[in-house]
Design brief:
The chain has eleven helices and ten strands. By secondary structure, it is α/β, with parallel strands linked by helices. Strands 1-2-4-5-6-7-8-9 form an eight-stranded mixed β-barrel, surrounded by four helices. Helix 3 runs parallel beside helix 5 and helix 5 runs parallel beside helix 6. The protein is globular, with a radius of gyration of 20 Å. The termini are far apart. Bound molecules: ligand C2E and calcium ion (3 copies). One calcium ion binds next to strand 6. Ligand C2E binds next to strand 2, helix 2, helix 3 and strand 6.
Length: about 280
């Protein structure tokens, strides 16, 4: 910084220190939370747009902190990735999600988020195999959600891991689609089972012709590649109307349901599952 840029410089440095020390504190707390088992999984319904039937659930991790209450994964997952804790946490999520899903009707799938960091550790494929074997869940009922970041670095190695997962019979979804760059090109790198349209496009799909055009393009391209399409973050019936007009296959969002604790899944399955 310039010598006399003075106040701004002095203002930002303590601010950076504060953020850094909060991160360090969270890292300590996270390590403790893993030992104390303070995590739980919630499940958000994935619905067919056409039939209104339940297709499955996305597993989303929750941290129930003894004094802070529920901490958002948007806050702690990046820290867990940074300090190398995500492999352990991710393995726990995989085990729990598969075990839970094994008790659902067989038409329902479970979607599990997997970080790019979990691809580097060398244990992802064996961990998935173990979770499937121990739960008895059929591989084609497990869907692994990745983001474009998995395809950004170590691409060849990660594609090989995706192939191995596909070889087990597991489905692979591309999450948050449209938020990265050169997105369309990624669709040709690997035969994904599903594309999830990021909620930033869904949010203003009615007012913004650009968003609607992008959604239409994603649905057109994905469908022609044989992929299923899910719209994320659907909050209003107006958004649903547009998505229906655009032939979007599936939706997730507060309009139907937020993520819910496992003990409350029964009535949803009862009311919306076809079998
Ligand atoms: P994501 O995978 O994109 O998950 C969707 C997020 O959108 C979830 O936030 C969900 O609660 C929220 N959401 C669902 N419907 C709506 C809606 O209608 N409106 C709005 N505004 N939001 C909606 P959540 O649970 O806080 O998770 C945030 C992110 O944390 C996830 O984004 C994912 O990237 C990460 N995450 C969550 N669980 C796990 C996990 O088990 N492993 C890993 N690696 N990451 C996870
Ligand atoms: Ca996801
Ligand atoms: Ca997403
Ligand atoms: Ca996300």
């Amino acid at each position: 910084a310039k010598k006399d840029s003075g106040s701004a410089y002095r203002f930002f440095e303590p601010e950076m220190d504060r953020i850094e020390s909060e991160r360090r504190q969270m890292a300590i707390e996270l390590r403790r939370a893993v030992i104390e088992n303070e995590f739980e999984l919630h499940f958000q319904p994935i619905m067919s747009v056409k039939t209104g039937q339940l297709r499955g659930f996305e597993a989303l991790i929750r941290w129930s902190h003894p004094t802070r209450g529920m901490v958002s994964p948007a806050e702690f997952v990046p820290v867990a990735e940074e300090i190398g804790l995500i492999e352990q946490l991710g393995a726990w999520v995989m085990d729990e999600a598969c075990r839970e899903a094994a008790g659902w009707p067989h038409s329902l799938i479970v979607a599990v988020n997997v970080s790019a960091q979990q691809f580097g550790g060398g244990k992802l494929v064996s961990g998935v195999e173990r979770a499937l074997a121990e739960s008895g869940l059929h591989a084609n009922r497990l869907e692994i959600e990745i983001t474009e970041s998995v395809l950004l670095n170590e691409t060849d190695d990660n594609i090989e891991i995706l192939r191995q997962l596909r070889g087990l019979g597991v489905r692979i979804a591309l999450d948050d689609f449209g938020t990265g760059y050169s997105s369309m090109g990624y669709l040709t790198k690997f035969p994904f089972s599903r594309i999830k349209i990021d909620r930033s496009f869904v949010r203003n799909i009615r007012e913004n012709v650009g968003s609607r055009a992008i959604v239409r393009a994603i649905i057109g391209l994905g469908s022609s590649l044989g992929m299923d399409i899910t719209a994320e973050g659907v909050e209003t019936s107006e958004q649903l109307d547009v998505l229906r007009d655009e032939n979007c296959g599936e939706l997730q969002g507060y309009l139907f349901s937020p993520p819910i604790p496992r003990q409350n899944l029964g009535p949803v399955i009862e009311a919306y599952c076809g079998d």
